[in-house]
Amino acid sequence: MKAMLLAVAALLLVVGEGTAERILSRRTRRELASPLHLEGIRDPYGSYCQRRGGCCPGRDDMCTVPYLDTICYCDLFCNRTVADCCPDFWGHCLGVQPPFIGTCERNGNKFLTGQTYKENCNLCTCGSTGRWECEQNACMIEADMIQGVNRGRYGWRAANYSQFYGMTLDEGLRYRLGTQRPSRTILNMNEMQMNMDPQSEQIPLYFNSVEKWPGKIHEPLDQGNCAASWAFSTAAVASDRISIQSMGHMTPQLSPQNLISCDTRNQGGCAGGRIDGAWWYLRRRGVVTEECYPFSPPQQTPVEVARCMMQSRSVGRGKRQATQRCPNTYNYHNDIYQSTPPYRLSSNEKEIMKEIMDNGPVQAIMEVHEDFFIYKSGIYKHTDVSFTKPPHYRKHGTHSVRIIGRHTLSPLLCGPRQTPHFPLVLLLRQPQ
Ligand SMILES: *[C@@H]1O[C@H](CO)[C@@H](O)[C@H](O)[C@H]1NC(C)=O
Ligand SMILES: *[C@@H]1O[C@H](CO)[C@@H](O)[C@H](O)[C@H]1NC(C)=O
């Protein structure tokens, strides 16, 4: 009995030494390869051993398949280090679950390592430890932000917008705004002097340009994922002003796309631009209407700028004429509309209101914070609902809008016009 045991021990020793020697001499390649599955299997559903045509018994260093940038093994020997087996070795060769596959749960369903789902703007992946690992982006729509605004007394209501849902806050700031901060040119403009006595001048609590100038104030266009509020707000204000000044003889809705694609000097198209540049172009070159040169939202990368499809030439006395047809097959009215020079108002709210009541909508540049994307109704003011969150939840960008009037707090009066489209139809805050 003793002799038997000794013999077995000796045999084990021999086998052990043999293995060590084999590893040193012939398995160097396998040893050098870094453990493939430390972070879990990276291609858990790929077929490797299966594609190879089967598995190899015992040890066979040639029994390999390319795996990502290295190789993996389909011989039974790989099972002792487990680190260099192909992802489908266990399932295909052994008929068992791989030791690295974790299972995660969600809504009562089981998911395996590598499977994903999207939670709002964040991708969650089932990790090898069986836990969901989710990205930590701030999203444009955050449920707790909506609740925070609606529970607090902020003077405005928040809501979910499905077209923003699933986008990150960074994407919102990058693709849904699009006006550069006021340039030196704008800041150096003199403010208009208004002959107005702020004490005696009566400004009504409610004023809506749409009602004073029926048929001359245009519906806002949706800029989609094109950060060109610089073009949209300028075209919108210019359209309304041309309609009002011509007393309805002309009511063009000017084409933002004409500006986006053709006003390209120092402008970024759908990646943002300057309103002073837009006004310069409207005055000196002019643009056609939206029907003639319709907006085409960028398909691939939001910052791509489509080729300019409209040019104009001077026909004397500052007037211009199109030299190209409308870039579509159904509209032939390629009249060029030009604007008068822009002027700057003071930041006195009463003066802004008087200007709107006398001459029509105005353009404003505004700082947009994270909570603006959930604005529904009421008088918007930046809130503190995200103040306790990490800094990447509290961000801002610059936007430009058309202002068409003013309202009191009654939601009845502002309800239907508060569309989430940018540029927003923004109504002025009451003076404090
Ligand atoms: C492969 O390894 C696993 C875990 O180490 C073990 O349970 C299983 O018996 C091994 N299978 C073979 C065929 O060696
Ligand atoms: C917002 O709307 C989207 C789609 O319309 C929906 O999937 C999501 O659950 C909503 N989120 C909240 C916080 O209401």
UniProtKB/TrEMBL annotation:
It is found in: Secreted. GO terms for cellular component: extracellular region. One of its GO terms (biological process) is proteolysis. Its main location: secreted. It holds the Pfam family Peptidase_C1. It comes from the Eukaryota. InterPro entries: Pacifastin_dom_sf (IPR036201), Papain-like_cys_pep_sf (IPR038765), Pept_his_AS (IPR025660), Peptidase_C1A (IPR013128), Peptidase_C1A_C (IPR000668), Somatomedin_B_dom (IPR001212). Residues 1-20 form the signal peptide. Keywords: Disulfide bond, Glycoprotein, Secreted, Signal. Residues 51-99 form the SMB domain. GO terms for molecular function: cysteine-type peptidase activity; peptidase inhibitor activity. Belongs to the peptidase C1 family. This is Tubulointerstitial nephritis antigen like 1. It comes from Neogobius melanostomus (round goby).
